[in-house]
C-alpha cells in the first residue's frame, strides 16, 4: 500500500496536532543525538511548543554553542551585548514557563482539594464546575466500558446457546445406543441357573 504524501499545513484537530508534535519532536531530538554521536558534530536544538514549553538538546554546553552560533551568523562581529540580550530573552521565557508550571500545579492541587482556604466563593464554584465536568466524562467512559462488557457477555451467551443446541441434537442417538447396550446385558444374565427347593417323590416319614 502506497503511503500518501502529507500536505504541509497546520493540523486543525488539537489532539492530532499534539500527537504529531510529540512524535516529531522526539524524532528530531533523537536524530540530533545520533548525529552528534556518529559524526562527532556539535549540535544544539531548541523547540518551543504551542503552549510555550521548552524542549532542548545539546551535545555540549548549550550557552557556548549558542554564542558560537551567534558569532558565526554575524561573521564573528556579534558582540557580547547581543549574546547577553539573547540569553536574557531565553531566561525570560524560562521564567515565564516556570510561572505557568506553577499555576498548573496550584490548579491541580485545588482540584485535589488542597489549598482551598484562600479561595473565594467564585473560585470554589469554578473548581466545582470543573470537577463536575470531569466526573461527567468519567461516568460516560465508565458507561461505555460497561456496555462493551455487556455486549461481550451477550455474544458469549449466544455462542454457548448454539453449542448447547448442537449437543442436544446429538443426545438422542447416544441414549439409543445406551438402551440397546443395557438390553443386551440383561439377556445374557437370564441364562444363569436358579436353584429351587422342588422335590419329586414320596415325602420322607419322620419318627
From TrEMBL:
Domain MADS-box as annotated: residue spans: 1-61
Domain K-box, first and last residues per copy: 87-177
Keyword Metal-binding included in the entry's annotation: no
SUPFAM superfamilies found in the cross-reference section: SRF-like
Keyword Coiled coil: yes
A Pfam family the protein falls into: SRF-TF
Keyword annotations of the record: Coiled coil, DNA-binding, Nucleus, Transcription, Transcription regulation
Gene Ontology BP annotations: positive regulation of transcription by RNA polymerase II
Subcellular compartments: Nucleus
Gene Ontology CC entries for this record: nucleus
GO molecular function annotations of the record: DNA-binding transcription factor activity; protein dimerization activity; RNA polymerase II transcription regulatory region sequence-specific DNA binding
Superkingdom classification of source: Eukaryota
Coiled-coil spans in chain: 124-170
Signal peptide: none
Protein name (record): MADS-box protein AGL42-like
Source organism of the structure: Juglans regia
Amino acid at each position: 500500500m502506497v503511503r500518501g504524501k502529507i500536505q504541509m499545513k497546520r493540523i486543525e484537530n488539537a489532539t492530532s496536532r499534539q500527537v504529531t508534535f510529540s512524535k516529531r519532536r522526539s524524532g528530531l531530538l533523537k536524530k540530533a543525538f545520533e548525529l552528534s554521536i556518529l559524526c562527532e558534530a556539535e549540535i544544539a536544538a531548541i523547540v518551543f511548543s504551542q503552549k510555550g514549553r521548552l524542549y532542548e538538546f545539546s551535545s555540549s554546553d548549550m550557552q557556548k554553542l549558542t554564542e558560537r552560533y551567534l558569532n558565526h551568523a554575524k561573521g564573528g562581529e556579534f558582540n557580547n551585548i547581543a549574546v547577553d540580550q539573547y540569553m536574557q530573552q531565553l531566561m525570560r521565557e524560562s521564567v515565564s514557563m516556570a510561572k505557568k508550571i506553577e499555576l498548573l500545579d496550584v490548579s491541580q492541587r485545588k482540584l485535589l482539594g488542597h489549598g482551598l482556604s484562600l479561595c473565594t466563593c467564585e473560585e470554589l464554584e469554578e473548581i466545582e464546575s470543573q470537577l463536575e465536568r470531569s466526573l461527567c466524562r468519567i461516568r460516560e467512559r465508565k458507561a461505555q466500558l460497561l456496555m462493551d462488557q455487556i455486549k461481550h457477555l451477550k455474544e458469549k451467551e449466544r455462542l454457548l446457546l448454539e453449542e448447547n443446541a448442537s449437543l442436544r441434537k446429538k443426545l438422542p442417538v447416544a441414549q439409543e445406543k445406551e438402551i440397546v447396550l443395557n438390553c443386551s446385558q440383561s439377556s445374557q444374565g437370564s441364562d444363569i441357573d436358579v436353584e429351587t427347593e422342588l422335590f419329586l417323590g414320596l415325602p420322607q416319614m419322620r419318627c
